[in-house]
Specification:
The chain is of the alpha/beta class and 352 residues long. Helix content is 47%, strand content 17%. It folds into two domains: 199 residues, Response regulator (Rossmann fold, 3-Layer(aba) Sandwich); 138 residues, 3-Layer(aba) Sandwich (Rossmann fold).
Length: 352
């Protein structure tokens, strides 16, 4: 079921009511006219800031005559990073309403091509723009192309489908992220030799496939004493990731490094530290690099279980996706530098 994030459009009367002043006073403050006490100016400006109110933008959007609808097609299930993106979209409610934008969340199984394609096909004709966490698969590519052909602006989010006719991709350079993870694992392992495990959600997700590609590039060229094991696919699920990794740890006692490409982080950490599974103490022996700063990865970094997180800003991604869709809908240029998503390395000592 779709969840709408934008409330009623705010007006100058709303700001005046909240600040406890007249409409004329709000107008004088907005236009920097004299005759308003400093304390009153402060109250009005505080009310404007609290509501992210932009009267000129709101007036321009109202003049356009209709609201726009955007859909965000997001993974179903408890993925903390994706939940952060959804939370930031919720915090943009006042900004969205000032521009007459309705943003709706559509949850689907992004690991199943047929399910994701069906979700996209169901949106045709109903939305001005769609942002999708996409699986790189022919049926998903066809569904994206059909939306574009029908006049819908499509942005891929976090995971790209570059062979489709989507209009823009919002996310990090995932090959560079994987290379960064490889450099961290290799250098932190140091002079030890042994094996390195990789846990991914699915290699069908372009972001996961590209991260693995970048990681393997660095391992092969810079750390030949480390042998990379075949990728485990945990579908970003804690239980599945835990079971797969626990079996691998039992089979290979010489694993010295671990790269968790997506979510399922809690399961990965439990497998490293579960005595019943024969992996006692491995959390202190295995260099563990993963992705994103969440409440869980923060705790694992502080405990020394996780050594580093490759981070991307979920708030920036949420804002960038909406801004790009809005620019596309208006026929305006996209500000590439503003929408570029950085790769950050976060360790225990520089936790934000």
């Amino acid at each position: 079921m779709a969840e709408t994030l934008s409330p009623t459009v705010l007006t100058l009367k709303d700001i005046a009511r909240e600040a406890g002043v007249s409409l004329a006073t709000v107008d004088r403050v907005l236009h920097n006219r004299p005759g308003v006490r400093p304390d009153t100016v402060r109250r009005v400006k505080d009310a404007i800031a609290r509501n992210s109110f932009q009267p000129h933008v709101a007036a321009a959007e109202l003049a356009r005559g209709r609201a726009r609808r955007f859909a965000f097609v997001m993974p179903s299930g408890p993925n903390p990073f994706m939940q952060q993106i959804e939370a930031y979209l919720g915090e943009m409610a006042a900004w969205l309403s000032a521009r007459r934008l309705n943003v709706e969340m559509i949850a689907t199984d992004v690991f199943e091509p047929a399910a994701l394609a069906a979700s996209l096909e169901a949106l045709s004709g109903d939305y001005d723009g769609v942002a999708v966490v996409a699986l790189d698969h022919p049926s998903v590519r066809a569904a994206i192309n059909d939306l574009v052909d029908a006049g819908t602006k499509v942005v891929t989010l976090v995971s790209d489908v570059p062979s489709s006719r989507r209009h823009h991709y919002v996310g990090i350079d995932n090959i560079a992220a994987g290379r960064t993870a490889g450099a961290l694992v290799g250098r932190l392992v140091g002079q030890r030799s042994g094996k390195v495990a990789i846990v991914a959600g699915s290699q069908g997700l372009r972001d996961h496939a590209e991260r693995i590609f970048g990681f393997n590039q660095v391992m092969a060229t810079e750390f030949p004493d480390l042998s990379v094991l075949p990728v485990l696919e945990g579908r970003d699920e804690d239980d599945r990731s835990e079971q797969l990794l626990a079996r691998l740890l039992g089979k290979h006692p010489d694993i010295v490094g671990l790269y968790n490409v997506g979510a399922g982080t809690q399961g990965v950490a439990k497998a490293l530290n579960d005595k019943a599974l024969g992996a006692a103490g491995r959390d202190k022996q295995v260099v563990f690099v993963g992705h994103d700063v969440t409440a869980l990865t923060r705790r694992l970094l502080l405990q020394g279980v996780m050594d580093a997180a490759i981070s991307q800003n979920p708030g920036h991604e949420a804002r960038a996706a909406v801004r790009v869709l809005l620019a596309l809908a208006r026929g305006e240029p996209i500000l590439s530098e503003q929408e570029k998503i950085r790769i950050d390395i976060v360790m225990r000592d520089n936790l934000p």
